[in-house]
Amino acid sequence: MTEIAVPTGQVGAAAAAVEARGAAMTFNAGRPNEVIALAPIDLTVAPGELVSLIGPSGCGKSTLLRLIANLLEPTDGSLLINGKPASQARLDGDYGMAFQQAGLFDWRTVSRNIELPLEIKGWDRARRRARALEMLELVRLCDFADHHPWELSGGMQQRVAIARALSFEPKLLLMDEPFGALDEMTREHMQTELGRIRAATGAAVIFVTHSIPEAVFLSDRVAVMSARPGHIEAVIDVALGERTELTRGDPLFFKHVTEVREALRAGHGVGGGMEDR
Amino acid sequence: MFVLSLMLAAAMWELYKAIGPETGGKVLGMRVLPKAEDRVMPHVWEMFQRFGRAEVRSSKDTVLEAVVSGAWYSFRIALAGLALGTAVGFGLALLMARFRVVERGLLPWLVVSQTVPLIALAPLVASWGGKLHIGGFTWQRWMSASIIAAFLAFFPMAVGALRGLSSPPPAALELMDSYAAPWRSTLFKLRIPATLPYLVPAFRLAANAAVAGTVIAEISAGVRGGIGRLILEYMREATGDPAKVYTAVFGAAAVGLLMAGLVAVIEMTATRHLRKEEFA
Asked: Among A76, A176, B91, B235, which is 20 to 30 Å from B150 by CA?
């Protein structure tokens, strides 16, 4: 690990979790197969806020997530995470990441999977173990610490992946369709769980999804994206207060769902490729 | 089950001896069936009786003793070759996984290396080795055979390990990247553990190759003391003592079986904690 002690930007309580200014991404720039994946994007995510990115396939929502994660370098514009450049934020462990596939390592037990990022960051064994148990408590899987991932259901695996992403207490959680591979019942359960975990940790979340109700149920704001080139079509504020199972039947919830669907249609002719669940 | 299949093989041998043509079968002047006479196909029991008798008329050692000591000698050569081949193969795979340029440049050469006829290579290695003197180190002849064995064994290891090292899905690599993990961490925590399922079949192939390489090297490089040499010597006596050559062949088979057993034990210890379905 390279620890660079030079503070860049103003790191403080006031710094936004994510601040994208004109961040753009072009693949194969200047070559015949050039693809503009993202037109310049402006997006600010406040600390503790949950913002969903929703849009049809190819609208660049995963690309935007990877720019924020510094897994890709933007070809233009700038990205600040907690007030620092994205590359520094990645080195500092400012964000955790969860993917559609839980991506747990089969050869490690559940708790050793959660310890993985801590090992890389050089924590000692006792501290790692203690933290892994705390995280298992958070995702309610205490009894499975010494199981192997393949012994767990899909939903449980995804909870382990979230625990792993949050183990080093990042202030930002990046999720790329994390519940996309789960069945409907598990999915709703996981959405409620995510709300609870978020309340417990206070982490900001950027949540990529294909599902309109999921985006509305989880988010403080929904960023609707459209393709060719990828850009943010509209940002919709969701004012639903605290979410419970009752929220799913709330008329206001349906109003927001319709609002998002119409924004998607406006950006794409029809809301093609969207799931109505 | 194995014993049963051995008995079946012995029974088929004797059956052919009983019904097969004494002088061999010919179709259009080409011999397609072997001669069933005793000089070419001795009885199974004669082969086993031969184990108990003296190796040569003047010696008091039995054939069994000679074959067992030869097999043990060859087994150790093969083992050294397997160890060396595994280390070299894995090392090359690491280099290729780390640097794509190395993979592009090296992989074709590895494939070519396996087409070099060993019969030609073995005497060369032996003569190069013979000229080698570094300080107090003197080249032993058995080392030539180990080198040949390693030359065959490293290939499946290199290819298998390379596939394994590059097997982690993009999401797993992105995950490591998101932790800003250095290459070394990704190697030890992700790539090498993910390689294990690929190493198991590669190691099995390498072990077989090491045994075959040892026997061939002993024959063509003239390494004394091993089972390959015994096969060669007994073959010369085949006209007068046909059962004898088969005792050495059984010895070579025993080396292979011993190696397979060892590999199975290593596999079981290495994959104990892994999901069972991955290893059919």
From this structure: B235
The answer to whether B182 and A1 have CB atoms below 8 angstroms apart is yes
Tokens of B51: 């184990």
Superfamily grouping for domain A16-94+172-186+204-269: P-loop containing nucleotide triphosphate hydrolases (3.40.50.300)
Interchain pair A107, B193: CB under 8 A: yes
Domain residue spans of chain A = 16-94+172-186+204-269, 105-169
Contact A69 B274 (CB under 8 A): no
Domain with residue B208: its CATH number is 1.10.3720.10
pTM score = 0.76
Please tell me the total number of residues recorded for chain B in this structure.
280
Cα torsion angle, A3, A7, A9, A13, sign = positive
Pairing of strands B30-33, B133-134: unpaired
Residue contact B179–A120, C-beta within 8 A: yes
Span B27-81, pLDDT tens digits: 667 767 777 777 777 777 777 777 777 766 666 677 787 888 888 888 888 899 9
- Asked if A106 reaches chain B (Cβ–Cβ under 8 Å), the answer is yes
Distance CA B200, CA B167 (A): 15
